[in-house]
């Protein structure tokens, strides 16, 4: 990360118009730090920093700016400068920028692209949102199996500047179908007159362009890859994704999961950049929906009004009981959502996990029941102690089961498991907890309730 002192120094040098010193300072900074420093500056200062960069570093720096900063900077350039920047961007970086634009902005920026760049961008944007196709770059190095190693190395040297990385060299047949992915080291160590097919082991990993980005994250993490091939359904090599792109995706997906688990809409931008109106729109829908769900909790309490009037001490334990169920459900849901997101568990594992979670939830419920039973005995005697203890066990088990099963159900219907947010699980568990608590209390204390009703 760029140090605060560096940013302050840049601002001071810009204000003093010491542009030669600005250039010298920028020469010592990685482009990532330059982009971070620029994000702290006003637009006119950003322009001056950008202009102070050598041409070969401008596009690299631009690719690390936030989409908002990229839009503002491009809008401040001439059409010729904007066209140059967009042309020099790597295809995946250009696609990431274009997909952040509104429909009108996208149309305006597509007009700046040359024929080849436009064709390529439209092809990548044609893949589904959140698919690997939008993340890949179609620039890669491929050789044929019947080539000699010497010929392959000549081809690699010639094509190296076109590819984003040459850590892996891909072997394809005449139809472009992927046959293998070979480390560059193998070509360097092999005999020059040997055929490429002699160093092939046909062990490689690939993903479909139409697959979700999370699949690429899982494959790269599982097999410790730095480059992953992307193919169509016929096995034709279309492009590659690299580990730096995947790290960004992993961060985005984790952020989205956290936002959904908190029952907040997904923000595709920095929280600092988000306007209050956008934050309001992202959150109000969930909050109104949860208010509607909680109405049923109030209705459930109203059903047991007589029990409450007869045994007022039950009110003391109501928040404790229902909150415990919601908390247990939120814990279980968080564990399941994350396990599904990382591929640690699959849909077929639901029954096995259900049994495990039931056992854990029962043990948790018993432990918590032992704690509240003592308080129940102190405040209301043995009958109240029994009610709160049994209710605690049942409510914790119910909440845990809801928290565990709901993500699986959502995943089964091709919905994001993270939609099983903690507030949603808590609200559902609250209603179930109220019904369980007062149902048990009415059954156990029916004589007390009946006596109170007769006395009235």
Question: How does this structure look, described?
Answer:
By secondary structure, the protein is mainly alpha-helical. It has three domains: 4-127, MgtE N-terminal fold (Alpha Horseshoe); 142-259, CBS-domain (Roll), CATH 3.10.580.10; 276-455, SLC41 divalent cation transporters, integral membrane domain (Tetracycline Repressor, domain 2). The protein has 21 helices and six strands. It has helices at 4-15, 19-27, 31-38, 43-52, 55-63, 67-76, 79-88, 91-98, 103-110, 115-125, 149-159, 184-189, 213-223, 243-261, 276-303, 305-310, 314-342, 350-380, 382-412, 422-444, 446-455, and strands at residues 142-143, 168-172, 178-183, 206-208, 227-231, 237-242. A three-stranded mixed beta sheet has the order 1-2-3. A three-stranded mixed beta sheet has the order 4-5-6. A hairpin with a 5-residue loop joins strand 2 (168-172) and strand 3 (178-183). Helix 18 packs antiparallel against helix 19 and helix 19 (382-412) runs antiparallel to helix 20 (422-444). The mean pLDDT is 84.
Structural class: mainly alpha
Number of strands: 6
Order of helices and strands: HHHHHHHHHHEHEEHEHEEHHHHHHHH
> How big is the Rg?
30 Å
Shape: elongated
CATH class bucket of the largest domain = Mainly Alpha
Q: Roughly how much helix do the residues carry, as a percent range?
A: 55-70%
Cα end-to-end separation: 72 Å
Biggest pleated sheet: 3 strands, mixed
Q: Mind telling me which CATH architecture of the largest domain this is?
A: Orthogonal Bundle
Number of separate helices: 21
Mean pLDDT: 84
CATH topology annotation of the largest domain: Tetracycline Repressor, domain 2
């Amino acid at each position: 990360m760029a140090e605060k002192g560096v940013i302050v120094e840049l601002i001071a040098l810009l204000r003093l118009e010491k542009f030669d010193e600005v250039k010298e300072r920028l020469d010592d900074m990685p482009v990532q730090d330059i982009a971070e420093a620029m994000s702290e500056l006003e637009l006119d200062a950003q322009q001056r920093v950008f202009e102070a960069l050598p041409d070969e570093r401008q596009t690299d720096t631009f690719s690390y700016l936030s989409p908002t900063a990229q839009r503002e900077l491009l809008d401040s350039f001439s059409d010729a400068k904007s066209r140059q920047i967009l042309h020099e961007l790597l295809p995946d970086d250009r696609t990431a920028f274009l997909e952040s634009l509104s429909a009108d902005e996208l149309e305006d920026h597509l007009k700046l692209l040359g024929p080849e760049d436009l064709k390529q961008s439209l092809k990548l944007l044609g893949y589904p949102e959140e698919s690997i196709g939008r993340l890949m770059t179609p620039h890669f190095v491929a050789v044929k199996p019947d080539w000699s190693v010497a010929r392959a190395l000549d081809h690699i040297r010639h094509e190296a500047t076109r590819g984003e990385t040459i850590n892996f060299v891909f072997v394809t047949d005449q139809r472009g179908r992927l046959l293998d992915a070979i480390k560059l080291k193998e070509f360097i160590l092999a005999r020059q007159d040997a055929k490429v097919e002699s160093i092939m082991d046909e062990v490689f990993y690939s993903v479909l362009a139409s697959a979700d980005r999370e699949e690429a994250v899982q494959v790269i993490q599982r097999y410790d890859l730095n480059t992953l091939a992307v193919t169509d359904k016929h096995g034709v090599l279309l492009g590659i994704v690299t580990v730096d792109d995947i790290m960004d995706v992993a961060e985005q997906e984790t952020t989205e999961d956290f936002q959904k688990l908190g029952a907040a809409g997904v923000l595709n931008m920095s929280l600092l950049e988000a306007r209050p109106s956008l934050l309001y729109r992202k959150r109000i829908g969930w909050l109104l929906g949860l208010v509607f769900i909680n109405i049923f909790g109030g209705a459930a309490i109203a059903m047991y009004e007589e029990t409450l009037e007869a045994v007022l001490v039950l009110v003391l334990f109501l928040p404790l009981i229902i909150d415990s169920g919601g908390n247990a459900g939120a814990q279980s849901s968080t564990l399941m959502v994350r396990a599904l997101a990382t591929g640690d568990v699959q849909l077929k594992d639901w029954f096995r996990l259900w049994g495990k979670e039931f056992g854990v939830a029962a043990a948790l419920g018993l432990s918590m029941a032992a704690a509240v039973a003592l308080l129940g005995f102190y405040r209301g005697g043995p009958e109240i102690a029994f009610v709160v203890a049994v209710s605690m066990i049942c409510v914790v088990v119910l909440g845990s089961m809801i928290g565990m099963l709901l993500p699986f159900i959502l995943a089964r219907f091709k919905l994001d498991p993270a939609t099983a947010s903690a507030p949603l699980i808590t609200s559902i568990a609250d209603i179930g907890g109220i019904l369980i608590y007062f149902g048990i209390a009415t059954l156990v204390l029916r004589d007390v309730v009946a006596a109170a009703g007769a006395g009235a």
